[in-house]
Specification:
Elements lengths: L1 H21 L13 H17 L5 E6 L4 E6 L7 H15 L3 H7 L21 E6 L2 E9 L4 H15 L6
Antiparallel strand pairs: 1-2, 1-4, 3-4
Amino acid sequence: MNSFYSALLLIPLLISGFQAQASDETPLATYQALKPELASKLAWATLKACRKAGYQTSVAVVDRFGNIQVLLRDQLAGMHSPEVATRKAWTAASFKSATDVMMHETQAGKVQSGVRFASNAMMVAGGIPVEVGGVLVGALGVSGAPGGDKDQECAMKGLAAIEDDLPL
């Protein structure tokens, strides 16, 4: 009789197990990210765009989680610029938004102003998310040009330089 009741208790477990298999859902997440070669190409294209404009900058490329993939600092870029570029890239990845937009949306008195206090946030223009088909694959940050708007321009030119390498 004990085995009969044990079998009855197993039936719901077996049914739920079959349902989980039939649903095609996996407990693991998959994601896309820039390969190191493409992240490096993006960083160099951005640094070259800054140089062409006459700016000595630092350029950071982070993955979708904000981890540094590539960090370049031109010879005469300010000593603060690697940290600022990295934080701009982290911010763009974290909020999935360009930092020039975040700069305006998080000003004092605005509803979103509190996010400026996130530990790595840098709400200054010069950081942009890198997306493929609307999916975040990384982010780019630039620091050292004379103003965030110039950093942003360099970042946009760097991203444009690798557009053909990104899948549709």
